[in-house]
Amino acid sequence: MKILYFHQHFSTPDGSAGIRSYEMARRLVARGHQVTMVCGSYSAGRTGLDGPFTRGVRRGLVDGIDVVELDLDYSNSDGLLKRSRTFANFALRSIGFALTEKYDLVFATTTPLTAGIPGIFARWLRGKPFVFEVRDLWPELPRAMGVIRNPLALWALGVLEWTSYHSARRLIGLSPGIVKGIAERGIERERIALVPNGCDLDIFASYVAPWSPEGTTPSDFIALFAGTHGQANGLDALLDAAAELKARARSDIKIVLIGNGKLKLGLIERARRERLDNVLFLDPVPKARLAQLMARCDLGLQVLADVPSFYYGTSPNKFFDYIAAGKPVLNNYPGWLAEIIEANQCGFTVPPRDPRALASALEAAAADRAALASMGARALEIARTQFDRHALADRWVDWIEGTIK
Prior knowledge:
- The chain is of the alpha/beta class.
- It has 2 domains: 2-198 and 389-404, Rossmann fold, CATH 3.40.50; 202-386, Glycogen Phosphorylase B (Rossmann fold), CATH 3.40.50.2000.
- Helices cover 43% and strands 18% of the residues.
């Protein structure tokens, strides 16, 4: 089967972005399918192509995947207007591939929601089966966050969401809340599969030489946040906790944030202004280098803004990277990930908007390293038994293959 796969933010492990699409495409290839991946140029990603662009496109084979990269730069630091233009341009140019490439099935994954547009055209103009993967519920999340307030824009996104879902023969949701949200748009539950993000055990569970960031000592307790520094992440909560820890004279507990995003410079400035020398900011690194940093860290921080739509409607890569590395997780919002942590006793959960509780959880973690090690072992066990990327990829491919049977 020939599959035309659209993911604007595709990356190989050489980038610092999530590699779900890379691993899923590789599993399709391993199962005997041909995959053409159409993507943009994501600042956090690496497509595996480094040749020149010709008329805004470069194309080549990367680990068995036919990668088509469009010369459309995108960064998490971009403003809303620039991001919207890039999303629209990618969707419009993708339509051309949907109408001209030879393929048996088209697959598209968000974000953004506009990724579904070429699938709609493939379904209605060429009669091709379309599978749509939903990583975030739009326009529910931007509405809840207040990022998009224009009623006309929200209405248009709602129409696009409904059309994408109803044009797809099958759908995939990455969390229980996403699956529920799709079903509430009138899609039969039997057409939706839950396939969450997975754990890359080959990268994070193997022994690597630990990397100690500058500004830490061998005896420091290190809590790591690895991800985007954006509005959705609510990272001021970590600086609030850092201020509380400093007031308690806990200079031995360091909070390390690695990644990029629109709010990073503001967070750095706040930490400088408040003299929070217990907070360190690092630039993004490839997955292998991140694994070395995690090997040194004691705990992973799963932090989001206090938006109820996030509670069951997200499937963050960082959570699965943490547990794959055998690290306990400190989570600051309720929902399905908090339930996993509590049920498996593999970390800590604290209420949102409570810096004292977050700081106290970090102190408790630092105080009992033996208990922390047991939590990490349980985290790794659920990574292996419930969220192994290879097992989830097989489930994902089975669902794709079933679309045209």
